[in-house]
Design brief:
Main location: membrane
Number of helices: 18
CATH class: Mainly Alpha
Radius of gyration: 23 Å
Family: Belongs to the cytochrome P450 family.
Low-confidence stretches: none
Structural class: alpha+beta
Oligomer: single chain
Strand content: 5-15%
Strand order of the largest sheet: 1-2-8-5-3
Shape: globular
Cofactor: heme
Largest sheet: 5 strands, mixed
Number of domains: 1
CATH architecture: Orthogonal Bundle
Subcellular location: Membrane
GO biological process, one term: sterol metabolic process
Number of strands: 12
Length: 479
Amino acid sequence: MIATILLLITIFLYLRLRATFFSSAEAKNLPPGPLGVPFIGQSLSLLRAMRANSAEQWLQQRVAKYGPISKMTLFGKPTVFVHGVAANKAVVFSGEEEAVSNRQTESLRRILGERNLTELSGEDHKRVRGALVWFLRPQSLKGFVGKMDGEVRKHLNLHWHGNKEVIVAPLMKTLTFDIICSLLFGIEEGPTRKSIIECFKTMVDGIWSVPINLPFTRYSHSLNASAKVQQILKQLLKDKAQKMEEEEEEKEEDKNLITCLLSIKNKDKEQALSEEEIVHNIILLLIAGHDTTSILITLMLRVMATNPTVYAAVLQEHEDIHRSKECGEALTWEDVSKMKYTWRVALETLRLFPPVFGGFRVALKDIQLGGYTIPKGWQIFWAASMTHLDEKIFTDPQKFKPSRFDQNQTSIPPPLSFIAFGGGPRICPGYEFAKLETLVTIHYIITQFTWKLSSQDFLTRDPSLMPNKGLPIQLYPKL
């Protein structure tokens, strides 16, 4: 019975897809490559490769067979995969809003909400991005260092000290979630935060999935979890808006991203964000910050456990800062600005192991690229690692070399070749927040502990990159 339903759904969607997209592509010079089975196409094959952490090889085989531009079907839509710095400049991170727009997969769009930043274009994108960037700019973040310092110390005292072994990945997810909830959204420990995090893993599991909304699918479970989170956040907005109305002046400790966005709504109708835009972008930042930064910190500990030279250099940098502090004194913005080598280690970790595999755009008109036509309405798919591991851009690309990102070097990566945070007008607005969070966390881990891996592991993507065992490590606290 289920098989019959799936077959009927597939046939229906295929006919609709063909009527919508394929007719417009007729007689055009399409890129090479098969579209595959209707609706499904290469989706399941790519997802299998991601879980085996062989998606880069999967794409490299396509490049070897069809060249840097090829067509396929991914997650229900005809798709053109593009590769290279030229493609990144021309279509992926282009500012030409009339030609290319943000358009994530159906599953990602529905789970995050259709008014999140990765879906918006033109004036809407500038308006929402401007509001987020204004709050997350370095001038604002300077005031976060002390509170973030306290969150990290509290986390280590609760979950690390007194344990001989910890599993890093889930603990880093807990830490980054707590930091984001507390600092960005003013959601302190309690039922609201607990309810959100209970829905979170289910939401993330379905982000890259075939969008078949049947009760037994990952996609369906993720949609339900997203709906619950949105209801919780809408109530939170109402509560904060009411509190702001009752108080004549907002207290400094109550200021956060939500109150900032609500203030814009109250003061400037032209720049105001709708309730949906605020809620959907809170979800975006929660998922992006919770997943990507926690993965980065986890993988940095993995790198340092297996690379004594890198570990020693990071340790030296942080011991110098630690010795300059009074006992119990919190880090300052000036301290964080001295952690230059540690951030280069972070960037090199992101180059080799980007937490986000890739993303999608949509062609708003027929686009000419590399002698081929990308038809209007087709998806454009890009993957970060394709330029990160290109030996024409990065010499000996499989080697871990933090010096690649030393600004004093003459051979720094060319623009739009390192795209772990996106690029151009699409660069991640939370870049500086993620940097601060990473550096403060590494400082306290490396000055309070030494560690070694408890067992061998391998990396897998489902959908984000992660050690398959969560990175268990043996802890040795420093006296």
